[in-house]
Amino acid sequence: xxxxxxxxxxxxxxxxxxxxxxxxxxxxxxxxxxxxxxxxxxxxxxxxxxxxxxxxxxxxxxxxxxxxxxxxxxxxxxxxxxxxxxxxxxxxxxxxxxxxxxxxxxxxxxxxxxxxxxxxxxxxxxxxxxxxxxxxxxxxxxxxxxxxxxxxxxxxxxxxxxxxxxxxxxxxxxxxxxxxxxxxxxxxxxxxxxxxxxxxxxxxxxxxxxxxxxxxxxxxxxxxxxxxxxxxx
Length: 233
Ligand SMILES: [Ca+2]
Known about the structure:
alpha+beta
């Protein structure tokens, strides 16, 4: 009887223990599954948020790093447009100098602006120019850049310049002026090379901006100009 009781107790306890074990096991499985589900859900949620955050961050960085497009003030910058002469470009050729809209050399397309002299002149010079009369970027800097090619240029050489006038069109008086002359020597025999000059802080009374490619006095040789820009900085 005792044995039976013991056996029953044992069996009952065993069943209870087994049941409890199963319940615990099942609960554990449920908890595990639930925990796994929660963990997985949290992981997916965190991953989604991370992806969204990374996307927004990259978008922010991308937007932040995107430079604002430079405002171009010149037209016919590749010197390709025109009929008898290049649109919007004007020139001065004195005494021994010649200016030409040429197909001899080109950095882009088939044309460039050329100046040349076979003998020296101590008092005169030549230039190509373009004048901008639109909205003036008051308080801003402007930078002139142009590709230059020289063939056996000797003497004073080439300069590029920016001029600001209080009148539109020009009235012969430069209120602001910046040049590479006496700062950068542009002489010799070389292929297309970009040169720049900056005019700082445009005054509020400026009405026009003119850029110049100058074949200086006391210079001989051939010089070509192509792909110019005057950008607001
Ligand atoms: Ca060209």
